[in-house]
Design brief:
The complex is a heterodimer of chains A (352) and B (188). With 352 residues, chain A is of the alpha/beta class. Helices cover 45% and strands 16% of the residues of chain A. In chain A, the strands form two sheets. An eight-stranded parallel barrel of chain A has the order 1-2-3-5-8-9-10-12, surrounded by eight helices. Chain A has a two-stranded antiparallel ribbon with strand order 6-7. Chain B has 188 residues and is of the alpha/beta class. In chain B, strands 1, 2, 3, 4, 5 and 6 form a six-stranded parallel beta sheet that branches. Chain B is globular. The chains are: A alpha/beta (352), B alpha/beta (188). Chains A and B meet through helix 8 and helix 9 of A and helix 5 of B. Chain B: It comes from Perspicuibacillus lycopersici.
Chain lengths: 352, 188
């Protein structure tokens, strides 16, 4: 776990992530400027750090209703604005980028931040960037596998010799600068199916698992499959962290939390995913057996602990500001995370 | 409410003729309902390549988004080689798995002979169910002999189209009310 800068004796890590979506608040129909959105994301990272949150990450989506296409630039600003919170991507679409440039960027962020940078590399669930950046969608799988593999090789070796289909070969190539300690944590983003998780397992890389909704038991199967594949691939599952991710929102009561968050999720998904989030499914999210952490602080604490017990995850990443949630509500949530949720998680998951 | 008629092939005129009758029936009986007719013969729709429906361009994007925006869809289809035409199947392939959730879908089918009667039952309805449609169970089956020079000459077919339109509207309105009542119950 040290390789991935995780200390299990500290207990479950709590992270915040943003897709960098740029959506109107459905209650007012008003959308802040892209500039303000980016500044608020940087501000959010500072507040997260003050609250004691362990990790903060920013994603890239290259289409309408998003503002952090240049997510590594935003992360560099966050690196400068913060002192101890770990920072990363959620996700970096490695398929449509040059792994050498991605590594240079994130190694630089790691140096700026004093060893706090991580990459979560994914394949993109929104694929508009393939056309924009000049890639063929038919190479979706292979682009990811080849480029992710190169990214891992660069991380492990200061001098790289490499040959592939989608990029010019590398001959005794030195990829610089090197991050602190010579390498940095690189995770594979997994969309939820056991087949996808098993690829991460065979490869021997940490897994960040997306969980939009559904029962904990469903995602446990995926995590079990990941650890099984790690073993089959000759790796020790004890050495590889798992991060789970999903919707998060707390308010005084469950009903209030559902009421406040639902319009943001529903309207936001309509614009970014092509279809809303059914109310019926959202209502089921309140169930203690659901992965959706929406409710009163006490209920959400119990859910996070139940999920931790079932998953054995090392990090939970919360998505609480999707779909134009007003900043004061986000601040209120962060305050509750800092004063109520984090102390409870630490109490029940840290050693001693 | 918005109803979209989808005429599912690029070949021939019978399905389009029947769809014209259907659209006229909606316009006459329900002037407040917004109706669109998409005849695939008029559009250059590409084959599904796996991207999300709104990421297509041109006609493909227009057709997919128009269907996604409908409250009810009336599909008109001929029978080709004992199945639905590839043009129609491609429309389903362009859309997400749950694309027809909360939509009422009804069917009108034209065929060369009565031997094709069960093809819609056995091949089209399973697709609609898989995509979560509320299907109007009774469909209008129209044979070659019911047409004469782009007109329907069998009054029984006219009556059936009237009933299909009425059932589609009644079910769409009813499901919308049921859904509203249920969503209000959740209290958020």
């Amino acid at each position: 776990m040290e390789k991935y800068r995780i200390d299990p004796s500290e207990g479950l890590e709590f992270g915040l992530y943003t897709l960098g979506d740029h959506l109107a608040n459905p209650a007012t129909g008003e959308r802040i400027s892209a500039q303000q959105r980016i500044k608020e994301i940087i501000e959010l990272a500072k507040l997260a750090e003050q609250a004691g949150i362990h990790f903060f990450s920013v994603g890239e989506s290259h289409q309408d209703y998003f503002a952090t296409q240049a997510h590594s630039v935003v992360l560099a600003a966050i690196a400068q604005a913060t002192e101890k919170i770990k920072i990363g991507s959620s996700s970096t679409i490695i398929s449509t980028s040059d792994p050498v440039r991605v590594y240079e960027d994130f190694a630089t962020i790691d140096l700026i931040s004093g060893g706090r940078a991580e990459i979560i590399a994914g394949r993109a669930s929104r694929v508009g960037l393939f056309e924009l950046l000049g890639y063929n969608l038919r190479d979706y799988e292979e682009l990811f596998e080849e480029k992710f593999d190169l990214l891992l090789q660069i991380n492990e070796n200061e001098v790289v010799n490499w040959n592939g289909e989608f990029r010019a070969p590398l001959r005794n190539a030195k990829v610089l600068p090197r991050p602190t300690g010579g390498s940095m944590p690189i995770w594979r983003a997994v969309g939820g199916t056991p087949a996808s998780a098993m690829k991460a397992g065979f490869q021997g890389v940490p897994m960040a698992l997306a969980m939009l909704g559904g029962p904990v038991s469903h995602f446990k199967l995926t995590i079990d499959a990941y650890r099984q594949a790690l073993k089959q691939g000759g790796h020790n599952p004890e050495e590889f962290p798992v991060a789970t991710t999903g919707f998060f929102y707390v308010a005084e009561t469950t009903q209030q939390a559902l009421r406040e968050y639902y319009p943001h999720i529903n309207e936001g998904m309509k614009l970014t995913n092509g279809g809303g989030f059914p109310k019926q499914l959202f209502a089921q999210g309140a169930d203690p057996r659901s992965v959706m952490n929406v409710g009163s602080p006490q209920e959400v604490i119990e859910k996070i602990l139940y999920q931790h017990e079932q998953f054995g995850n090392q990090r939970y990443m919360a998505q609480l500001e999707f779909g134009g949630v007003p900043f004061e509500k986000v601040m209120k949530n962060i305050e509750i995370i800092g004063t109520e949720i984090l102390p409870a998680i630490k109490k029940y998951t840290a050693k001693k | 409410m918005k109803i979209v008629g989808l005429s599912g092939s690029k070949v021939g005129s019978k399905t389009r003729t029947a769809m014209n009758y259907t659209i006229k029936e909606i316009n006459g009986k329900y002037p407040d309902i917004e109706v669109d007719l998409i005849d695939l013969a008029d559009y250059d729709v590409q084959f599904s390549d796996g991207r999300s429906y709104w990421e297509y361009t041109g006609d493909t994007k227009y057709v997919a988004e128009t269907l996604m925006g409908a409250d009810a869809i009336i599909i008109g289809t001929p029978i080709f080689q004992a199945s639905i035409p590839a043009t129609l199947k491609n429309i389903f392939d362009l859309l997400p798995e749950k694309a027809l959730r909360d939509k009422v879908v009804s069917i009108l089918v034209t065929a060369g002979s009565a031997k094709h009667f069960l093809i819609v039952e056995q091949q089209l309805k399973p697709i609609l169910s898989y995509m979560k449609a509320q299907v109007v169970q009774t469909y209008v089956f129209i044979e070659e002999k019911d047409f004469y020079r782009k007109e329907i000459i069998n009054n029984d077919i006219i009556f059936r189209i009237q009933r299909l339109v009425e059932d589609t509207v009644v079910l769409a309105e009813t499901y919308a009310k049921v859904r509203e009542a249920k969503e209000a119950e959740y209290g958020f």
